[in-house]
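Components:
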Amino acid sequence: IHHITQNGGLYKRPFNEAFEETPMLVAVLTYVGYGILTLFGYLRDFLRYWKIEKCHNATEREEQRDFVPLYQDFENFYTRNLYMRIRDSWNRPICSVPGGKVDLLERVSHDYNWTFTYTGKVIKDIINMGSYNYLGFAENAGPSKIPVTKVLSQYGCGMCSTRQEMGNVDKHEELETLLARYLGVESALAYGMGFATNSMNIPALVGKGCLILSDELNHASLVLGARLSGATIRIFKHNNMQSLEKLLKDAIVYGQPRTHRPWKKILIIVEGIYSMEGSIVRLPEVIALKKKYKSYLYLDEAHSIGALGPNGRGVVEYFGLDPEDVDIMMGTFTKSFGAAGGYIGGKKELIDYLRVHSHSAVYATSLSPPVVQQIITTMKCIMGEDGTTLGKQRIQQLAENTRYFRRRLKELGFIIYGNEDSPVVPLMLYMPAKIGAFGREMLKRHIGVVVVGFPATPIIESRARICLSAIHTKEILDIALKKIDEVGDLLMLKYSRHRQVP
Amino acid sequence: YQYLLVTALYMLEPWERTVFNSMLVSIVGMALYTGYVFM
Amino acid sequence: MNSRGIWLAYSISVAVLHIILLSIPFFSVPVVWTLTNVIHNLAMYWLLHTVKGTPFETPDQGKDRLLTHWEQIDYGTQWTSSRKFLSISPIVLYILTSFYTKYDPVHFVINTTSLLSVLLPKLPLFHGVR
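Structure:
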């Protein structure tokens, strides 16, 4: 936990972030588990190869054997021998809105998860601890229902054209004006897809001769956008300002490799909340470094917009900073607005440039009007412009839920990663079998959680990623905590050294 | 249950568990026998 | 290969392999040590120097698909701590094996050949050589 000194420090609030180390015994047993699974994986591949066992996997036909292989079979080793065994905990079909509670379609497998069959039953009112629904606007009731219905009947749902051609309607203009006000920037641009907002706009901003300094845990869309741009990419350790400063210093001192010409542009790319770690970017320090070395800052607020800050303005407001200091404000409407799509905000000349040069503006179909209306309604609700305090209440409720839930899980003895204000709560599981067991045991207790394992996380840091929502009442949280406590005892997940010994 | 979880046998099919457990029992048996002979 | 506990897990698994072989009643101690050395080197050769690519999909557009595990460690940087550890461990095992086989010539030839088969591919000049 890094307490930055209050007086004169960069931070206007305490910054409590913890990543307790994996206990050594647990780490070794985790490798043992993966070792045993790998051994049996090789055994199963051997049985499939000699046709002793039926191969459910997609493979080439006999006649195709001599062609270039379509399937990299080793690359699927992990999928077919480890992931298959526990994949009933993933991709569960839901048949309701992903709100505070959710209805699941029940399914069974008679061949160890190679195929599933639906029993026809619906498991109702599962407590949803897995969806990104921070402010609870993923609902088919509430303030946005009527306006969205109206817009749907008036505009239809498909734009069928891009922003630069016929796909530019007054709703988009209204959204972008409101969005610029919401973010506190000069102008903003909205796109139909969050992932594409990153992967299509970074190539429009940097190119050859530029340098991108990227956090090692950045999202795949940032990685793809950076690679597409053709700029040189250097990676700094997650949220580690010493590592970032060293890269900046080297970039300024040595310039480009071989020619040592100065970099045309240096772009620092960070995220507001890292959804796998539950950590919050050290934005005051990043901005201080950016000013010191005169580089640009690209802030991806996919998770933090709406979820952080007293008025839901994201990580900039959370730290009490000036939006002007962030050159490119990016974010998505998926997590806090119950919608879809992404946005970029910044100086007017930047936005006008992107309006002309961005892949998404030229080729991608623009945002669907009902989705635009959903965003407008929820944004006005958060800003309080709809005449109610619903938005304010939900922001406060989320902040309370987050602190309460994190504190209680730590008291129970679990290892929880990340910042104490982050609504994403990674609960560490470590061993591969416990990933599947946790997902199954929680579903038995009518709680839906998302579990994540290798290779999406380091091999010894498998986890359950619990996402809190403003729609969760304290009763719901207490039920969830009670069940997690039960399952934690059953699976012996209370590894923390800081737990209070009764 | 803890044994199944820690050794990841929880994820294996019943026949694989049988294979693993019989191998484990035979290795432990051999180790005990050899230890006895050695003593 | 430099995440927490993996070197300890690796050492423990070599020790467990040795104990399993030691518990086979009709093997003598020299045979057990030579078998430990040879099986360890075979497994190391297969996992580090034969299998190419990754057992799961990576977002690098297949760049690493043609590289062995050893060539992918630390993105190809030579002489990192993981690489040093994985180079030293077969040597330590070889020295122990030579001692316990009382430097018998037959065992010596087998063990030396086995050691070279995992040491040579680890040399930086063999990076990417097929």
